[in-house]
Amino acid sequence: MTKSTSRVHPAGDVAVQMQVKRRRLRVATLAAGFSLFALYLAWHAWHDPQSQHQDELPITQAIAQDASSDQAVAVAGPDLVKRGEYLARAGDCVACHTADKSRPYAGGLPIATPFGTIYTPNITPDPDTGIGQWSDAEFLRAMHEGIGKSGERLYPAFPYVEYTRVTDQDVLAIRAYLNTLAPVHYTPPRNDLKFPFNQRWLMTFWNLVNFTEGRFVPDPKQSAELNRGAYLVLGLAHCEECHTPRNFMQGLKSSDRLSGAVQAGWHAFNITPDKNSGIGNWSDDELVSYLSTGVAPGRANAAGPMAEVVTDSTQYLNDEDLHAIVAYLRSVPPVSGGEARPRDQWGKPADDVTALRGQTITSVNGAQLFIANCATCHNWTGQGVGASAPGAYPSLVHNSVAGASDANNLAMVILHGVNRTTKQADVLMPAFGDQLTDDQVAAITNYVTRQFGNPQSTVTVDQIAKLRAQQQ
User: Fold this and answer.
1) Summary mean pLDDT of the chain
2) What residue spans of 211-350 are helical by DSSP H?
3) 304: left (phi > 0), else alpha (psi -120 to 50), else beta?
4) Distance between CA 244 and CA 238 in Å, rounded?
5) 416 a known binding residue?
6) Is 243 within any annotated ligand binding site?
7) Is 96 marked as binding a ligand?
8) Which of 97-111, 320-334, 353-367, 369-383 has the lowest mean pLDDT?
């Protein structure tokens, strides 16, 4: 039996090896060239002061100057300015562009991202450090395309992904309002981003995957109310920025739109019409009440970033816009998060205060800590004080924070408190982060979820430590 073999001629071996070497050399050359180009851009951006952008210059002394508000109003017209103020509130511009409440819209607020910290720019009409020398076309380009005055790519911490849907007229109305603000001479801190994410030109590739430029187009098959709600939710109010999960590039994951996400330790809940995981069992009046006052009696009380949204933005929306938002949220596809029942349908009153009488507590005890720190306002039964009156101390029974499938928001409320100011009431819960240790916060959190909420939702001491470390 003869064994047959196939053999390449030695000359063929040499030719193949040479081709492989040439291919590897080309790839190495391209990689080296790209690396040198990136390093050159980094060196150029660092050494050329002309290339440093407004949000990347050294901090200067903040000096509020006299505003030329009367002239700006005269040029734009009072009705346009009033409309712009309303739209700026709908877009919650003040929240991100204010680090110091004594100088609103002057920027400097740190925004933590997985790639480093971004500081928001000054958008007062100061000519040197703000947008006083921007043309309307440049302002439109920033809002619609994410491109700054000097042609630099803006980072998507600025939600141009949603603002691109806002009409030219509404953008220019916002600009007219901003022109009437007191100019503040202040340059925010320079962004602190890791290489290569500090290279703005890389946003070109991010945009290819995560950004579609274009204005909102109403759906002729839907009502004017629903179209208005879509325009607000998907555009100016940019609800997806907090309530939609993100992909590995930190772009919005459109397949799970509005199904909830975690931001800086806070869980922005599912706001699709799923009856268990979302808002499907809320009435229209309850949703409107929550947006306008921060309270849906018997269901939820806004805290953390959502309390800020209510304080700075949604409480100022008119009734038509609030109902339009609700109508649109009713229309989106429901997304199930796997919850067995709604967050606000858990819990029962406690009677631990009688059981604890005369007992010697020898360890960290959640019930004892609750009675000592929380019962004064929430009652030792957990049923609150004041029922549904404005400024009432909310019940923890049938409370969406206590009944959530994760205890993040409950722990964050204990650590950081609640501060929500509306036309109806000033709501303040003190922060206990400086008074309680991580194990004490964990003990209270787990007691509240076990007694008043979802007993399967627990936290560890290590999780509390991580939440405490989150930049707020």
Assistant:
1) 86
2) 224-231, 240-243, 284-293, 304-312, 319-331
3) left
4) 10
5) no
6) yes
7) yes
8) 353-367
